[in-house]
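Budget justification, computational time. The allocation requested in the original proposal was used primarily to generate structure tokens for proteins on the priority list. As evidence of use, we reproduce two of the resulting records. The first is shown immediately below.
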Amino acid sequence: MTRPVIVFAGAVYPGQFGHLCDYLRKTGMAETYFLTTPGHRERNRHRGDHILGFTPDGSIVGKTHYYYTAKLERSARIGRGLLAAVQAFEQQRKIDVLVTHSLWGTPHFLYDETDAAIVSYVEFPSYRSHGWDPAYPPDQAQRMSDKNIEMMHYYQALRSDLVICPSQHAKRMFPPALQGNIEVQLEGLDFGPPLVKPPGTPFTIGFTARDLSNAKGFDTFVQIADRLIRHGIDARFVALGESSGATYGYEQQWVQRKYKGEVADFCAHLMREYPAVAQVIDLPGKLPYDDYVRQLSDIDLFLYPLRYGVANWGLMEILGRGGCVIAPDRGYPTELICDGVNGTLLPDDPDVWVKTVLALKDDPAHRQRLGQAARILGQNQSLQVVAPRYMTLFRQAMDNRARRLT
């Protein structure tokens, strides 16, 4: 088969699939291009001529006309600009596969307007299905707005030639009737070298996520840290991540309502509630990538008490670099971790977590074995391994497209 022409689309580059796009092109597996917004194209122009631009039909970050359809309006502006760019591209070159981000490269205006097979990447269909803590619920307006996002994702599952989700956990959030057109594949990563603990540094227990949020389990981490401190553990605590906002939850609005501006964010709230933790924990915030990796190397034991989530590239990187991880025995982490082999899975019982942390602290050989296995198994999600899998999925989408037309 000749090399397919595959065009990736997303308002953010590299974002999801930017590195995959580059890798497929570099290795000659496909002729690939990436359509992104003008600013991202300009900042990454040095990466190659295959990074192309599309211009949304108006601002995608400014004010919208109606709160309840704000994200739909943003998606329409993206979709309109993407359609124009695809049509211009097709005047010069046939596209075999269009790989789109469900929100930042929304494909719904592309259906019936292109001969390319359309693949939609959907992280999860809605916040309703994703889940949120009853202690910090969305208000009615947020629930109503979320219904429109769910509607748009269901439509993509119906009309796209293939939908890709990052985990089985995410796929199960769709209605059973739509799951037949959904395949699971996590984005490929380039893990880099294994973590190497600097000599002479104290035993360190760490938390790392995009944000220090309830959905990521930061409040659970703080509760466990508080119990460990009261137990008298000799350890350093560090939490890596942004504290000023929550990506997947509603706790920030709860903080604003409770404290009327006196407390900045959920992290600050927790530090007030757990002063013993506040006195010892390091909170470096969002770091440049190289600094982030250096911080990872200091950590002997990673606690990942996820509450809600469908995939986490941070967790995947920790495993792929050989970190020793404790995670919940439910949900997405169970797709990556085999208990006692490449990590530890525990029930949602803080006392069990404390007991396990203390045992692993005193058993460096066991931590090393778990970390070594985590790195070996984590390589199954490297770009080199997943790229052929993606090519199979893209050909599957092309076959699906051909069958739809017959």
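The second record produced under the same allocation is shown here.
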Amino acid sequence: MTENRARPLGKALAERMRGFLTNGELAEPNGSRVHTTTSVVDCGVYVGGKRLPGDFRPDRALVEACRQEGAFVWLGLHEPSEAEMAAIARTYGLHELAVEDAVKAEQRPKLEQFGAVHFLVLRTARYVPHQELTESQQVVETGQMMIFIGERFVITVRHGDASEMAPVRADLEAQRAVLLEQGPWAVAYAVTDRVVDHYLEVADQVEADLDIIEEGVFSRDKSAPIQQVYQLKRELVEFRRAVVPLQRPLAAITASQGVVPKEIRRYFRDVQDHLTRTVEQVSSYDDLLNSILQARLAQVTVDQNNDMRKIASWAAIATVWTAFAGIYGMNFDYMPELGWKYGYPALVAVLSVITVLLYRALRRNGWL
């Protein structure tokens, strides 16, 4: 009985594995070979929470996992090409729609099910260090993480430089073997936890930038231009797009029955709590940035009004001199004090007194 069952399984795996060849080559359905640079970062087979020794190609790893009870493959990819992803899809039985999403990496966080395979999409985030915030400075760099979760495998596809998986794999293999015994969903949890932990780090760093912007806006010298406030708001919007939509997939995972192991659902609830905290932080940052932006716009309006008042004040002072110059510039034969020897100095003295009195009045009223 065992031999009869093994033959169809071996035949099916042989059909799927035709997409893989050695020496960095891929096989097309017509039998031709295409040379390509592999995007496989790591591929391991795990049994009872322990990684089997040796290096495995994706096809051989699946064969080895199917031979042992409770074994699964963890295949890590970084920005795979269409050809390589298609070969992996044929080997592991992935749906073409999910494969297309994994290659293009332009998806919103979501959780979909294609037969026995679940497809989880996450958006990664990384804080970009900088000395000061400028009008074009990138603050938050985002990428994508796709996770295929099957009965015998878990495939992680990463786009971008954020949330590298090497530390996650090393931590699970070295310190959390008991968790790895739970199977592919344990890896999905560890990856999701890593991504959400980076959300928290980014949120803390953005808060520091926000404090600097707020201090600059409300300082006496008003050193923070409105362009910096707007740039930080744009970066926060990008971060929000990565964080907020993830709430629904995590809620679906924690509420699932029978698909995700009960123990793993408890871990996912912890990740959900961290995500909720990040969402609240992002929402509060957005509200605070809106308030800062409105305050800066109000400051600009007040500064413009103050400038106009100063201009009007000096214009009023100049008008006194202009008025007397206009009167005495008329070509009349009989005008007061035209023939007086001290007429000009007296007129200048009177205008100076009027100017000083007008200046003091405008100064006292806050116009100058």
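A brief technical remark on that second record: The longest helix spans residues 262-328.
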